[in-house]
Amino acid sequence: MTRLECLSAVYDHLRECAVVTIMGGVAAELYSLGHRPNFLYLNHSMGLASSVGLGLALCKPERKVFVLDGDGSLLMNLGSLATTARYAPPNLVHVVFDNQQLQAGGGLPTATATGADLAAIARAAGIQDVSSPADVDAFATAVEDALSGDRHSFIAVKVETTGPALSPTEIHMLENRFEFARAMRSR
Amino acid sequence: MPASEASSRAVHEALKAAGVRLVAALPESWIAPLVRRAEADPDLRLVQVGREEEGVGICAGAHLAGVRSALLMQNHGFLQSINGVVSLAMLYRIPLLMLISDRGHLGEEDPWQTEGGRYTRPLLEALNVVHDEMREAGEVKRQVADAMALAEASLAPVALLLTRRLMLEAGR
């Protein structure tokens, strides 16, 4: 299963959501499927996508918020799982594409390659709705369940390492930031 | 020495008057009464974080959603959060209002606070973060409003130091 297959399977569901990605391949692949003003590709700030998503979700309760995270990024901010579990905004869906390595940083293995289980950590942090779908169809179903439900959901999915390592450069990060903020305020 | 309830009330009211609707905080003794007040206030959303850098992300998310926020932390928490301040708030032009308890400055009697206290102001200077000291409860409302105004106009972090004089009952 690749990240791009997963993203392709749920892209139509993401169209109207606020989406925050980490930098690198996730951003490039989402961008390749079609940029939207409500997509924010968070460059740098490693680990903080989950926290940005929490702030957005608490302040935009009428809008579904997707965080598209990675294992390396989440490992830098594992505490955010406990914070998010504590406030559990029902409109927040946290997806982690776990390729077990720092793809953009030279491909060295992360701790998920040696046994750290992000879904188990999320459960133990207090998140009630945690899933780890094993194929693309199950991933799409998990995303659809998360969207139709009124609860904070965490979806950890193991993916192969394929695709680009770097963020899209066609749109400047500040242009993306201001466009995203406008999109959040437009409705 | 307990933190001043009167000053905590003044800061709380100042934040609300400045339009703040979300407070991200990591409590410590000087700011604990303020955090309790924020938690009890239905007009404020308190997000108590496990580590201060999370708060930078949460406040950035709030800003992108069009909501004013503030990050409340100890100076050692500011030290902890610095990569977030630089790599998120500054890089992405986020008007981050930081309220930082000024531990380890003049009057400090706890040896363990003193090392961090030496670096609070130099680090704010090094980062070119505009900052001011809050010393008198009567001036807090104006200072918070001014800090928020500058943060939003400059799209940059601004820091207000919660001084010993403001935060402790006996002015110690």
Task: Walk me through the topology.
The complex is a heterodimer of chains A (187) and B (172).
Chain A: H1 3-14, E1 18-21, H2 25-33, E2 39-41, H3 49-59, E3 65-70, H4 71-75, H5 79-87, E4 92-98, E5 101-102, E6 108-109, H6 118-125, E7 129-131, H7 136-148, E8 153-158, H8 173-185
Parallel strand pairs in A: 1-2, 1-3, 3-4, 4-8, 7-8
Antiparallel strand pairs in A: 5-6
Chain B: H1 5-17, E1 22-25, H2 32-40, E2 45-48, H3 52-64, E3 69-74, H4 75-90, E4 97-101, H5 114-117, H6 120-126, E5 130-134, H7 137-154, E6 158-162, H8 164-167
Parallel strand pairs in B: 1-2, 1-3, 3-4, 4-6, 5-6
Helix pairs in contact in B: 1-2, 1-7, 3-4
What does this structure look like?
- The complex is a heterodimer of chains A (187) and B (172).
- Helix content of chain A is 43%, strand content 18%.
- By secondary structure, chain A is of the alpha/beta class.
- Chain A has one domain (3-185): Thiamin diphosphate (ThDP)-binding fold, Pyr/PP domains (Rossmann fold), CATH 3.40.50.
- In chain A, the strands form 2 sheets. Chain A has a 6-stranded parallel beta sheet, sandwiched between helices. In chain A, strands 5-6 form a two-stranded antiparallel ribbon.
- Chain A is globular.
- Chain B has a single domain, classed as Rossmann fold.
- In chain B, helix 4 links the parallel strand 3 (69-74) and strand 4.
- The model of chain B has no long low-confidence stretch (mean pLDDT 96).
- In chain B, helix 1 packs across helix 2 and helix 1 packs parallel to helix 7.
- Chain B is globular and about 40 Å long.
- Chain B contains 8 helices and 6 strands.
- The interface between A and B is medium-sized, with 35 and 31 residues.
